[in-house]
Amino acid sequence: MEATTAQANELERRIDLSIAIADVEKEMEPRLRRMGRNMKVPGFRPGKVPFAMIKQQYGDQARHEVLSEQLDRAFGEAVTAQKLHVAGYPRLEPKASESTTHMEFTAVFEVYPEFVPGDLSSAEIERPTLEISAAEVDKTLDILRKQRVRYDSADRGAAKEDRVVIDFTGKKDGVAFQGGSATDYPFVLGQGMMLPDFENAVEGAKAGESKTFDLTFPEDYHAKDLAGQTVQFEITVKQVQAPRLPDVDADFAKMMGVVDGDVEKMRAEVEANLKREVKRRIEAKVKDQVMEALIKANPIAIPASLVDMEIQRLMQSARQDMEQRGMKVKDMPLQPEWFAEQAKRRVTLGLILAEVVKTENLQASPEQVRGLVEDMAASYEQPEEVIRWYYAQPQRLSDVEGVAIEANVVEWVLGKAKVTDKAAVFDELMNQQQ
């Protein structure tokens, strides 16, 4: 076996491999004899089939297997000798050769990029800050109350936050159009379920009242045949129901999982959960900025083979997700280009993070992993069971270790970059509506 190296581009490499035909033929005979032990041929007992018949039956298969193994061995020895860090799998190309004693091949492959982590001193990162007070707890309790709202019939005109049940028919040029009619249709005023002009027309109407009004659809309306068109709606309000929120009392506390109904205990749990969630969201925002800073500071070449492999993983994940949602994947063919940018970013960050962790010795400690597991388990009713679940399988702990390593990288970058603390707005951080 002989090997030579030639560089085609920044990451692509080519190695010429030479395999002796005599070596292939030499390894074929014992392989064929092993294959023939279970060969069944009428008139011959197992293991007694003539070698010539075994070779005729399995010769091509044996030659292919032996050649593949010798090529793998030759390739492995060549890249090890030259200390090449191979990314993905090599593509083997036969070479035209006049040799009668050897078969010539070229292995085409990519290597991992070699780089020193870039300077982060000019990177600017804005770190949100937010202290949870009684006001945020009250706001969260209001949201929880609204999630458990009940509606009671109201003998008055419909107002925002009311739930109404209506019949409606939409007509364009006097003809009812598709999707423009419904019976016993419920919606809550002010939640944007209907177009603003439609809701404005319903607002103020009492149960039993009917109304006819014109409505002009927006120019960017999803139904192209109605976009920008003026139609006429006829509506009949059948029910008007006013919202009734539960009081913040013992019953509400029990509804929220506080067995003894202690309202103060419920508020303390809400506050603790809010602090954990705020911390998580702040860390996520900082992490996003850190990752962008790392990408900007390390403009490295990326092996196309790794990107292709990541695209396949993302596509497989998308298929599984769609199947879990009850969708028929075969009816929705996925295109690799849909995932290309995401795959490239993931591969880029993976390579950069791996180099930073290795260079700066940022591996996760067992104590750090344990702390993360305990923190994640704290929001469950029986945290000790969650902790045992994580430690029951190495893969689960490996996932947590990955989170810990990322946290170490974030902390390292924050120590290098220009970090500015900025007070965050609770509703913006939590993506809540006023």
UniProtKB/TrEMBL annotation:
Which class of enzymes does this protein belong to? Answer: isomerase
Keywords linked to the UniProt accession: Cell cycle, Cell division, Chaperone, Cytoplasm, Isomerase, Rotamase
- Main localization is cytoplasm
UniProt name for this protein:
Trigger factor
Name the Enzyme Commission number(s) assigned to this protein.
5.2.1.8
| A Pfam family this chain is assigned to | Trigger_C
Q: Where in the cell is it found?
A: Cytoplasm
Q: Does the keyword Ribonucleoprotein apply?
A: no
Q: Where is the signal peptide?
A: none
Keyword presence, Cell division = yes
- Please give the coiled-coil regions recorded for this protein: none
What is stated as this protein's family in its record?
Answer: Belongs to the FKBP-type PPIase family. Tig subfamily.
Catalyses: [protein]-peptidylproline (omega=180) = [protein]-peptidylproline (omega=0)
- Entry-linked InterPro entries: PPIase_dom_sf, PPIase_FKBP_dom, Trig_fac, Trigger_fac_C, Trigger_fac_C_sf, Trigger_fac_ribosome-bd_bac, Trigger_fac_ribosome-bd_sf, Trigger_fact/SurA_dom_sf
Function in brief = Involved in protein export. Acts as a chaperone by maintaining the newly synthesized protein in an open conformation. Functions as a peptidyl-prolyl cis-trans isomerase.
User: Which parts of the sequence belong to the PPIase FKBP-type domain?
Assistant: 161-246
Molecular-function GO terms, alphabetical: peptidyl-prolyl cis-trans isomerase activity
Q: What is known of its domains?
A: Consists of 3 domains; the N-terminus binds the ribosome, the middle domain has PPIase activity, while the C-terminus has intrinsic chaperone activity on its own.
